[in-house]
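Tokens for chain A. Residues wanted.
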């Protein structure tokens, strides 16, 4: 496995112990739902390829002088959101660490918008559920109409007894393992959901300020409608994540740990090699391996926390592995909205046109051995109906949509 590595997660029912990765290639397979390969007993073995409050360490050689951070106060802007000024930037990357789906770097311009300063937290999501009664994807019986499209044509529907509520959980390993089989550190856990991210015996008690996880794209759209916000586009997300630093390797500059300072909740810096976990970690860190409180690490140049690391983030666009090639052909783009449908011929374990939405930012699992997705240009595709224990979101509001305190709820 090269240092570029892959972070290939799957959604797998507990009764299906077989998952296997594709042979290493120069381009990693995107994160995906592997419930498609493990839902059906004996069927097809469809392969799964896969707090600091201060502002950050600014490396001015990469961008303009840092502008004053503008935070909405509920009168002059949405409460608790940060103004992202918009502008032209090079989206994607041609860096040696970049994967093929990040190439080539190309010019894009985005208009200004407001963005949640942190991931949406457990407390915020709980307020939404209390107000609406929303039942998340992970809390509902698996729906074959949405699951089945991730399988090869003709795959038989499994019995109802296997279509149980639950979600994918990072369980880790107690010993070093080869990184060619995601089932060694991921498992479908019945009863896992946003209230119980690691399974029915786990809890978010005392973690109101952690990012909510185990939410599907469908759950996020429901929350956004209630909050009168929307998901960022992929272009908006990357522009915001860069914080004004043009083509920096990381959201804070070119060094992963400037002067030895840890800049994000990622696997790097842990004593154990991925995916080995030990149970003794401070409660603040969220467990053996998990999320940290929103805002634990320094903000970027726009005042946004955890744009990379901690938890992956859903964005609005459909995923195409070759989307940046298409965008580069079109020339300089204004507010691109992504492709009209997903397409990923590189993922041979599922139909090439199986639905996938883009996720960005990486998570607490990203590491140099297996995943380098804590870079602003890194991108993956994920089944919209796949909640996972390292996947959350944040939202945006258009500049012209903000009119009064009544125009958004949070």
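Reply:
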């Amino acid at each position: 496995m090269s240092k570029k590595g892959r972070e290939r997660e799957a959604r797998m029912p507990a009764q299906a112990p077989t998952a296997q990765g594709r042979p290493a290639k120069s381009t990693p397979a995107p994160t995906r739902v592997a419930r498609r390969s493990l839902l059906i007993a004996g069927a097809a073995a469809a392969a799964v390829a896969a707090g600091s409050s201060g502002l950050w360490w600014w490396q001015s050689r990469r961008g303009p002088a840092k502008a004053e951070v503008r935070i909405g106060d509920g009168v002059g802007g949405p409460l608790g959101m940060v103004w992202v000024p918009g502008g032209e930037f090079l989206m994607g990357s041609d860096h040696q660490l970049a994967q093929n789906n990040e190439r080539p770097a190309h010019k894009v311009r985005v208009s200004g918008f407001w963005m949640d300063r942190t991931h949406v937290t457990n407390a915020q999501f709980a307020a939404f559920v209390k107000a609406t009664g929303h039942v998340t994807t992970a809390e509902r019986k698996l729906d074959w109409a949405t699951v089945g499209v991730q399988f090869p044509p003709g795959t038989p529907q499994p019995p109802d007894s296997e279509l149980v509520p639950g979600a994918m959980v990072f369980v880790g390993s107690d010993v070093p393992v080869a990184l060619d089989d995601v089932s060694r550190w991921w498992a479908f856990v019945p009863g896992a959901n946003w209230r119980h991210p690691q399974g029915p015996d786990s809890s978010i008690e005392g973690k109101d300020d952690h990012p909510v996880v185990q939410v599907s794209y469908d759950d996020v759209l429901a929350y956004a409608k209630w909050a009168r916000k929307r998901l960022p586009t992929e272009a908006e997300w990357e522009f915001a994540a860069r914080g004004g630093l043009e083509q920096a390797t990381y959201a804070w500059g070119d060094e992963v740990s400037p002067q030895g300072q840890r800049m994000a909740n990622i696997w790097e810096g842990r004593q154990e090699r991925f995916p080995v976990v030990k149970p003794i970690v401070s409660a603040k860190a969220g467990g053996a391996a998990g999320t940290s409180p929103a805002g634990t690490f320094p903000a970027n140049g726009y005042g946004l926390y955890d744009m990379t690391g901690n938890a992956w983030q859903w964005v609005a666009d459909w995923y195409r592995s070759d989307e940046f090639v298409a965008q580069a052909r079109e020339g300089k783009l204004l507010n691109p909205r992504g492709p009209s449908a997903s397409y990923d011929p590189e993922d041979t374990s599922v139909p090439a046109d199986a639905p996938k939405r883009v996720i960005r930012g990486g998570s607490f699992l990203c590491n140099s051995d297996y995943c380098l997705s804590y870079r602003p240009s890194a991108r993956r595709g994920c089944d919209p109906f796949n909640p996972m224990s390292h996947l959350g979101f944040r939202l945006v509001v258009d500049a012209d949509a903000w009119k009064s305190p009544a125009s958004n709820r949070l």
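The longest helix spans residues 122-132. Helices lie at 35-38, 122-132, 144-147, 217-227, 234-242, 323-330.
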